[in-house]
UniProtKB/TrEMBL annotation:
It comes from Photobacterium proteolyticum. Pfam families: Amidohydro_1. Keywords: Hydrolase, Metal-binding, Zinc. GO terms for molecular function: guanine deaminase activity; zinc ion binding. This is Guanine deaminase.
Length: 434
């Protein structure tokens, strides 16, 4: 008998590469109907077919037959301070920020409040099978301190940063260019690469930063090239017009960020819906990343993201929930809406591509695919146990499915939080639906 942390028998699905880039989609993934995953010290030692000898070989096999185990979901754009204002009525982006977002974010100057919401937020991620996320804080360092403390507690791979914002917001939410540099640098030194945590330089979006602030954000990125950049781009038409007025000297909205040294392979641009051809080219050339946030884009009436264009331009894309403009923490709900957005754009989002985006695709987008996103030997054992069907209708639909892809498609369209049975971080169970 070997000494191991965890041995699981179940069905397993994980991706090896992007199914839309593979000449034979069957070689983009591995599916084991009756498989065995062996975990030691929080890492995957092996995933293979189950054999009858395994019963003698291993002492305690956790039997999860009938369920589907996939790598933990990855959320590439979410705002934790907006958890409590999810589903706020009736506005598009700029009015929505003024009416609901800014007053809510004010509360995060209080570290106790930030700690309380951090706990709720991380719990929601885990309930929904999300094991890693790129997360906006608020302008207050307290907001980031509280979130990192909680993520550290749960041993999560989480990336976050303090918002930099020195104009065009209420006074109570503004910093200054210098203050934002000093505070961000202090947070980088304290938190970046502590256990599984990473820092993201986080200018909210071009309209709320002066040239001076973006210059300093770029200096910070130059000094700490390993940290991320996280911001918003071309989400809403009025926002884009505003950026043109504020930065008339720049050739495009994306060029504002690019000019100040904020583009690159660890720079994530949420939304990127209304891009010009020039912007598509520049995002591609700089190897920057896009976060596709369908529930948010529909909820705020922002528009339809062109996933096929990103594929054509070889741009990495991950899925984002964008809570609280997004309406669900769940990547299954997000895929449901992503499918519809794609169809309205004249494209079909296959279930394989959908599950790729929610797992390995998200990991590639965040440059964390050396650690998570699939079940390759040596990766950290962050994973989710999914129940294929939790009600009569799902049961009927799943039993009526022709093959694996059809079954996965039914999960992506009909599934939701209730299908997430368990969530594991580094081989430890952190959530169980009871
Ligand atoms: N653009 C600038 N700030 C925000 C925000 O908080 N949410 C969304 N969806 N877009 C933004
Ligand atoms: Zn956002």
């Amino acid at each position: 008998m070997y000494s191991l942390d965890l041995v699981i028998r179940s069905s397993f699905l994980h991706f090896i590469e992007d199914p839309s880039k593979c000449s034979n989609k069957l070689s983009s993934y591995e599916f084991l109907n009756d498989g065995l995953m062996i975990i030691k010290k929080g890492r995957i030692i092996e995933l293979r077919e189950y054999s009858d000898e395994d019963e003698k070989r291993f002492e305690n096999i956790e039997d999860k037959r009938g369920y589907l185990v996939v790598p933990g979901f990855i959320d590439t754009h979410i705002h934790y301070p907006q958890t409590e204002m999810i589903g706020s009525y009736g506005e598009q982006l700029l009015e929505w920020l003024e009416t609901y977002t800014f007053p809510t974010e004010q509360k995060f100057s209080d570290i106790d409040y930030a700690r309380k919401i951090s706990k709720v937020f991380i719990r929601e991620l885990l309930k929904n099978g999300t094991t890693s996320a790129l997360v906006f804080g608020t302008v207050h360092t307290e907001s980031v301190e509280a979130l990192f403390e909680e993520a550290l507690n749960e041993n999560m791979l989480l990336i976050s940063g303090k918002v930099m914002m020195d104009r065009n917001a209420p006074d109570y939410l503004l910093d200054t260019a210098d203050k934002s540099y000093i505070e961000s640098e202090a947070l980088i030194n304290k938190w970046h690469s502590r256990k599984r945590l990473k820092y993201a330089i986080t200018p909210r979006f071009a309209p709320t930063s002066t040239r001076e602030q973006l210059t300093l954000a770029g200096k910070l990125k130059e000094k700490y090239p390993d940290v991320y950049v996280h911001t918003h781009l071309c989400e809403n038409r009025n926002e884009i017009e505003w950026v043109k007025e504020l930065y008339p000297e720049r050739k495009s909205y994306f060029n504002v960020y690019d000019y100040y040294g904020l583009s690159g392979d660890k720079s994530v641009f949420a939304h990127s819906i209304h891009l010009t051809d020039d912007e598509w080219d520049d995002i591609s050339k700089t190897n920057s990343v896009i976060s596709f946030c369908p529930t948010s884009n529909l909820f705020l009436g922002s528009g339809l993201f062109k996933l096929s264009k990103a594929e054509e331009k070889n741009i990495r894309v991950g899925l984002g929930t964008d809570i609280g403009a997004g309406t669900s923490f769940c990547q299954l709900d997000t895929l449901n809406e992503a499918y519809k957005v794609n169809l309205l754009e004249g494209n079909k989002l296959s279930a394989l591509k959908g599950f790729f985006l929610a797992t390995l695709g998200g990991a590639i987008a965040l440059s964390i695919d050396d650690k998570v996103g699939s079940f390759t030997e040596g990766k950290v054992a962050d994973f989710v146990v999914i129940d294929w069907a939790v009600n009569d209708l799902q049961e009927l639909r799943v039993n009526n499915s022709n093959d694996l892809e059809d079954k996965l498609f039914s999960l992506m369209i009909m599934g939701g939080q209730q299908n997430i049975k368990e969530t594991y971080i580094a081989g430890k169970r952190k959530y169980c639906l009871d």
